[in-house]
Every structure is written in C-alpha cells, then in structure tokens.
Amino acid sequence: MARRLFGTDGIRGRANQPPMTAETALHLGMAAGGYFTRGDHRHRVVIGKDTRLSGYMLEPALTAGFVAMGMDVTLLGPLPTPGVAMLTRSLRADLGVMISASHNPFEDNGIKLFGPDGYKLSDEIELAIEDRMRDAAEDGLAAPEKLGRAIRLEGSRERYIEALKATLPRGMTLSGLRIVVDCANGAAYGAAPRVLWELGADVVEIGTSPNGFNINAKCGSTAPEAMQAAVVEQGADLGIALDGDADRIVLADEHGELIDGDQMLALLAASWHGQGMLRGDGAVATIMSNLGLERHLESLGLRLHRTKVGDRYVVEQMRQSGHNLGGEQSGHLIMTDFATTGDGLLAGLQVLAVMRRQDRPLSEIGRAFTPLPQSLRNCRLNGGKPLEVDDVRRCIESATKELGSRGRILVRASGTEPVVRVMVEADDEQLLARTLEQVAETIERYA
C-alpha cells in the first residue's frame, strides 16, 4: 500500500491546512505512540522544533496524542534536527520527533520521526503508522492512572553543543578564524554561534533573530547572498549558511564564493581517506550529485554509490554498505561516526578541521573538482499529473537519447513540494539549456 501522508522527509504541508493540522498531529502522536509502546517500561518520546509560529499548534497536539497512549513527553524546544536525533539516543527515548519544514517558508511545517537508535524511520514503519492513523488510532489508549506526563528539558541545547565540540580532534581550536554564520532565523539560532565562539572563533551572526515568521526569509542555505556579502565585508575566513532545521549547509570561501555539498563530500572523502578514517570504498550520494564528483573520486581510487533523492536513502545505503560518509549536493552531509542524520554545523566543523590540518584557506581546498554544467528547474503543479502523460514521457525519452554520453537528465516529482524537478547535466551548455527548456515546457503544459 502506498504512503499517503509521509513523503521523503516526514509529513509536510501548509500549516493549519490538511494534512498539517492539529488533528493530524494528535492522531499521529496516538498512532506512533501506540506503535512504539512495547514492554512494561515507562515509555518516552522527545519533541523538538524549529522557530515557526505553527510549532505552537503542532507541539501540544503531538504531546496530547503521546500522553494519551501513556508515553512521557520530553519537550526540547527549538533545536536542530540532528540535536533531536542525538538526544533521542542519549536519553534512551523510544521515539524522537522534530517539528520542522526544513528550508521551506514559515507558512509550511512538517513532522519528522526518529526511532530509538536516532535514525529516521523506514518506509515500512511509516506505512504501519499511517495504517494505525487510518484504522484505529484509539486502540491502546492508556487507562487514567497510566497517562503520560510532559516536561520541558532544560539544557538540551547545551548537550548538543558539547557533543558537536567533541567532534573536533583533541586540542584543535578555531582561534584566529573569523566566521560568518547564517542560522536562517531557524532552529540553530542559539546553538551555532555558541559552538563556533566557544571553540575560539570570532563570530559574525546573521539570521539569529527569529520571530515566528522570518525563518528562511532571504537568509540561510537557500538564500546565502547575505552570508556571502558579509564574508567579504567582514574580511572573514569563511561563511556558513544553515537551513531552518540546520540539517543542511552551504559554505562560502574567504572571497564569498559558494561551496556546495558535492565539493564538501569530495574534500572530506579525500582527507579522511588519507588519514585512514574513511570506511568503505568511497562515499554515498544521490542521483543528483554532479558527475564531476564521481569522476574525481574515481581518480582517487574511490567509488561514488548513488541512491534516490532523500538523505534518508543515503543513510540507509551507508548503514547497509558500511560507509561513514555520504550526503547530497544540497548540503545534507551525513557522517555516521558522529551523527545519525544530516548535520549542517557538524559538516562545517569537519571542513574547518581540514582547513586547520592543512593550514590553507578554503578557496584553495574547497573545490576539488570541476563540476559539469548542471541546471535544475522546478515545474509547479496545478493539479495535473504530467509524468503520467505520454507526450511528457516521449519528450524525456527523446532528450535522453539526444544527450547520449554527453550528459544526463533526471525528472522526478518532489516528495516535499508540489513540483516536478527537472535536472539536466551536460558538457555542452547550449545542449543543456535547450534540453532543459524543451522538457520543462512540456511538463508545464500538463501541470
């Protein structure tokens, strides 16, 4: 049976409209609580959130659902998604919940679930929870004397900060570095500047004044222009831009030039390989990663293993194959030696560690390969299903044939937004532009 609510990164939608309503959150809490209530011990769920106004609606609704099933709820407050995953494990919780729509605007929100091991739930478990929501979420309601309790954990941010600091090699500091950090007015607004400052850096803050409405608004990893400009104006050594829940990152070197997730993967893979830290025969990325990354790793005797789009699928492949480095071009980097999910700030610290070891600026080490020209276009849907239309299929087949060995095309429906994403990669930029326009126009005709 196909999933209806869960996409590639939890449940997501416009706040206070189906499915992102208090009612959905209540029933999700009941269904997930029932699924994860096993044994006679006192069950616990931890809940974190970003800074969206709608978090005040979803957090109590989820809490009510879990309490009704007899689960104790620990509220973490605003905390990055990787912090919630970390505390799920360290507090021995049965379940972790993050309320966030990641890089989306404040009007949207979402709910992500983590198992007791701190990893995102599998498709099978999410489907089982959906079935409970659809059939009989009320089954297993706790008796009055066995209802759960809710508490707010003081110091959750400090626990996450200390865990991050511990990932740097012993004795290494960031003393002497000036760093611009853009927290997107999101979940990392209190943690990221403190981590960098406590490690010795001179920190310039952007996007650390959330008001419930300004998350990801002209700031953060999806709009890094302010961070880039600040790096140049402040004479900083680099800039870090996180997204709303801080599980992805974009960097800028000392000249304000951007460095994406593919380049960070290349840098870390080479560095870890040289130190004997890289497990497996290379790294894991998605089908969206640039062909230049794959060729670069091959030149080092390493392989790039590809998965479908979504950091959860990268993590699943890493766990199956024993790799400890993976990620997405968009800036989700997963390092399973330190974390169970993508962590933007952790990735930034690991890049800083390479800079310290090599004593070189980011502009010299941050671009290990020359990427093939690549363009992405989002075709917004208006109720249609263009990928089921024969004209669209024939157009994609024709484009694939024309590209041949000179490039590739990927067309997929987004799992988080009502769009079809068209990505074209080719050595010839004219061929790239022509192919992208033809396919996108055909899709939009039936959108």
Keywords:
five-stranded mixed sheet; 14 helices; six-stranded mixed sheet; Alpha-D-Glucose-1,6-Bisphosphate, Chain A, domain 3; 37% helix; alpha/beta; single chain
Which strand order does the major sheet show?
A: 1-5-4-2-3-6
Radius of gyration: 22 Å
- Which CATH class of the largest domain? Alpha Beta
Low-confidence parts lasting 5 or more residues at pLDDT below 50? none
- What structural class should be given to the helix and strand makeup? alpha/beta
In round numbers, the mean pLDDT is 95
- Give a short account of the largest sheet: 6 strands, mixed
- From the N-terminal CA to the C-terminal CA, the straight-line distance is 25 Å
The backbone outline, from C-alpha atoms, is globular
| Strand residue percentage | 15-25%
Structure description:
- With 447 residues, the chain is of the alpha/beta class.
- The chain folds into four domains: 11-154, 3-Layer(aba) Sandwich (Alpha-D-Glucose-1,6-Bisphosphate, Chain A, domain 3); 159-259, Alpha-D-Glucose-1,6-Bisphosphate, Chain A, domain 3 (3-Layer(aba) Sandwich); 261-343, Alpha-D-Glucose-1,6-Bisphosphate, Chain A, domain 3, CATH 3.40.120.10; 374-445, TATA-Binding Protein, CATH 3.30.310.
- It contains 14 helices and 18 strands.
- It has helices at residues 22-36, 55-68, 81-90, 123-135, 156-165, 192-198, 225-234, 261-275, 291-299, 311-321, 344-358, 362-365, 390-403, 429-445, and strands at 11-14, 44-49, 72-78, 95-99, 108-114, 150-152, 178-182, 202-206, 238-242, 249-252, 258-259, 282-286, 303-307, 326-327, 333-334, 374-380, 407-413, 419-426.
- The chain has a six-stranded mixed sheet, sandwiched between helices. The chain has a five-stranded mixed sheet with strand order 8-7-9-10-11, with helices on both faces.
- Helix 5 packs across helix 6 (192-198).
- It is globular.
- The model has no long low-confidence stretch (mean pLDDT 95).
